[in-house]
Structures are given as structure tokens and as C-alpha cells.
Amino acid sequence: MNQLRRFLIESAEARGDWASIDQGWQEIVGLANYPDTVRQWVGEALGAGLLLSSNLKSGGLLTLQVRGSGKIGLLVVQVGADGHYRATAEYSETPLAGESLDTVFGDGSLLINLALPGAREDYQALVPLEGNSFAAALEGYFARSEQLPTRVCLGADAQSVTAMLVQRLPESLQKDAQDWERVEALFGTLGADELNNLDVETMLHRLFHEEQVRVYDPKPLTFQCRCSRERVSAMVQNLGEEDAQALLAEQGKISVDCEFCKANYAFDSADVALLFAANPGQGSDTLQ
Ligand SMILES: [Zn+2]
């Protein structure tokens, strides 16, 4: 648990990723107190994010964001190459159990953003919310972006999130599809409930015991927010001094809650004065 494992199905020229979290997920669920159906969608999106983070280079950050006009208006998942993850959602209405992706997210789209250290620009992909699940949307993404047949299974409940994918290796594409079809058929017997209740070794044995499978070392996954007083200070500075002072006058202090971990950052008049004295923003013309 709380780790990402890569594996190779050597006998069938396919690879895979398996990720599972419990402790941090329970923390996220406890902080946000989501209704069951919202929790389910956040969990599946987080599972998808954990799988997508498997290829991140050191220092990289993956953001998966769904924004739309449906019952869940915003869902954001972030996973760093260091295995730190966080997730949040905003909803205006509680989805019903079993509702489809487009009903829950409206005409939304799924944005996958990869920020890589040293890269001039982030890599971005806009994924249509096709099919009935994030698993189906993710399979579509891999088919388009990597042009590799991929199968995804995502499981989430109140206790844990477990996600798994299998993917055909590029070098096998010229060959007969028989091996891949076998992997696909075996993977197709996997249900989300089962996925959520078995460890990786048992899971791989259950599915691929007739194949030669190599499992790589685990990478730890930890719920850790990326917010800090410095980051929130920068947000307040971005408001400009005039707007910050107006907010202060109206509310007595500037109070910002992190939507991911619910940490509260408060700035009183002395804090705000200091912020703009230290870093005169665009709104300031009295300093410098
Ligand atoms: Zn936070």
C-alpha cells in the first residue's frame, strides 16, 4: 500500500503500473467530507493521476484537471515525481450512483498537464470525456498520445484507491497481436472491487500466473500538500496593494483556505503592510 509499482510481463511484451494508497486517501476524504459519489469520482481521478505520474522525470509535476458545467464543476489531482499527491473537487450537486461521465461533468474536458523541470513549456493534452469512466477516458488518452494499446482499471472506496494499467510495448507492435490479446483478456477479468482488495503480488499472480512477470521496486506515495505561507503570500501580492487593502478593510483580515488540505492562512493589516513593503507589487506606486 501507499506505493507505485511498475511491472513487465516479459512473456507477452507488455508493461504495467499498479498504484495503491490508503492512509493519505483517508486523510483527504476525512478533510473534505465528500458525499460517496463525489468521493468515488475524486478517487478514480486520483488513481488515474497516480498511474500517469509513473513516467515523470525527477522534479516533474502532473496535474489532472476536469472543469465543466456538470454537477462536479472542478476536480483537480496533482502528483509529483517525488510521490507526493493531493486532490480536490468542487460540486454544486451530488451525483447519483452510476451516472455517466458526461452527466457528472457536463460538457467538461480533462486537461493533463506535465510540468517538467528545465522544459521551456509544460506538456498539455486535452482529453475528451468519452466513455463512462475515467478509466475509459485514460485509455483514449494513451491510444492518442502514445499510440499504444492500454487498458486501465480504477478502484476507489472510502478506505483506499487502487489503480492499474497494462500497456503493449512499442517494440511488439510489428508483431502478431496474440500476446497482447491474451494480456487484455486476462486484465478484462479484473473488477474494481477486486483491484481495491488485493496487494500487487496477489493481483499479478491472480491475473498473469502463466506469464513471466517482473515487478520493480516500489516508489512511495504520500499525501502532502504543496501549499505554503510563501505561496499564499504571493497570491495576496498578486491582488495588488489596493485590492488587498480593500479586502482587509471589508473583512478585518485576509483569510485564505487551501482547497486541497484545508489549511488556513490569515493576514492581518501588519502582515499585508509587510508583504507590500517587502515586495512592492503592480498596485504600489509609493515605494521605490
Ligand atoms: Zn494545502
Structure description:
This protein has 2 domains: 3-223, Hsp33 domain (3-Layer(bab) Sandwich); 229-278, CBS domain Like (Alpha-Beta Complex). Helices cover 35% and strands 28% of the residues. β1 and β2 form a beta hairpin. The strands form 3 sheets. Strands 1, 2, 8, 9, 10 and 11 form a 6-stranded antiparallel beta sheet that branches. Strands 7-6-3-4-5-12 form a 6-stranded mixed beta sheet, covered by helices on one side. A two-stranded antiparallel sheet has the order 13-14. It has 10 helices and 14 strands. It is elongated, with a radius of gyration of 22 Å. It has helices spanning 23-32, 36-52, 101-105, 134-145, 178-187, 192-197, 200-208, 229-239, 241-251, 269-278; strands at 3-9, 14-21, 61-67, 72-80, 84-91, 109-115, 123-128, 150-156, 161-168, 213-215, 219-220, 222-223, 254-257, 264-267. Bound molecules: zinc ion. The site of zinc ion has 6 residues, from loops. Residues 225, 227, 258, 260-261, 263 line the site of zinc ion.
